[in-house]
Amino acid sequence: MTVKQALVSDLIAALGGDLVGASDVAISAIAPLEDAGVDAISFLSNPKYEAQLATTRAGCVIVHPKQAEAAAARHGAGTTASCIVTPDPYLYFARLTQWWAAHMRKPRAAPAIHPTATVAADAVIGRDVEVGPHAVVESGAVLGDGVRIGAHTIVEQDARVGAQTRLEPHVVFGRDCVIGERSLIHSGAVIGADGFGFAPTKGEQGVEWVKIEQLGAVRIGDGVDIGANTCIDRGALGDTVIADGVIIDNLVQIAHNVKIGRGTAIAGAVAIAGSAEIGANCIVAGAARINGHIKITDGVQIGPTANISNSIDKPGAYAGMWPFEDAASWQKNAAALRGLYELRQRVRALEKKTT
């Protein structure tokens, strides 16, 4: 099988950057510095790994201008390697992966509705739509132009999927839910399950729970990325809302009537309780917990495993569990806690001397 290749000059023509070295180096892979072969391109974004420039076998390395001298020396040391100099190597790498996926992978088959798929007669299907094997598109659903529905995925009644959005295999996209354009939902995600709403009442054998029908939906904006096995519950009355540009990792739980602002990033295993509101451009690190009915302002960074029990009205970094606080204070207290046993022993020794 012939391996597809691109020249460094092709990459620069597509993505920009300043060249150090030869432009005709052939690239057939993207790899980390330590693993890259002569046919691979890699990147250096963290200066602490600069020493790897001298040892990497990568045919091309993407570097910051501060590493341009080292990159030039690397080329001048007699190798045939090239370097691309750019102000943000990590961003360049991200755009390179997109270009690579679009140009270097095996082309997909022409969009089509698979013979085993079930599409309701009154569903609205745009141009160039792909519906995979055994997928289901129910009555009243709307699929915009260029939508891709993966195998065994279900788009339920009256749901709407915006143009160029992709639902990977085994996604459940619930009734009345809406997602905008150019978004992506990974496999196993469930959008629009019932929120956890029950009213307690006293029964003959103790507490009984009366289900509250969840009558709202989920509204998701443009350019949203939702990870595998993530669950976003529909609203009880109003909608659960995910704004444009939000990125959500795998295994995240978002309860009913939560609102998440534009550009916020949520890492894996986060749980957000009902009716919480998170502002724009926030970062919620892995396994953090956010209580229901609280508000978090724009520009907040929440540390891993933090338990956010109260509203946050000031931008900044927050961390800790019981209780959470600003990250700098929590780090000082955590460092002091590690020395607590030693301090206890010293106090006991002083007490013995004074008695």
Care to describe what's here?
The model has no long low-confidence stretch (mean pLDDT 93). The protein folds into 2 domains: 6-103, MurE/MurF, N-terminal domain (Udp-n-acetylmuramoylalanyl-d-glutamate--2,6- Diaminopimelate Ligase, Chain: A, domain 1, 3-Layer(aba) Sandwich); 118-318, 3 Solenoid (UDP N-Acetylglucosamine Acyltransferase, domain 1), CATH 2.160.10. The longest helix is centred in the N-terminal third of the chain and has 15 residues, at 89-103. The strands form 6 sheets. An 11-stranded mixed beta sheet has the order 10-13-16-19-24-27-30-33-36-38-39, covered by helices on one side. A 10-stranded parallel beta sheet has the order 8-11-14-17-20-25-28-31-34-37, with no helix packed on it. Strands 9-12-15-18-23-26-29-32-35 form a 9-stranded parallel beta sheet, with no helix packed on it. With 355 residues, it is an alpha/beta fold. The protein is built from 5 helices and 39 strands.
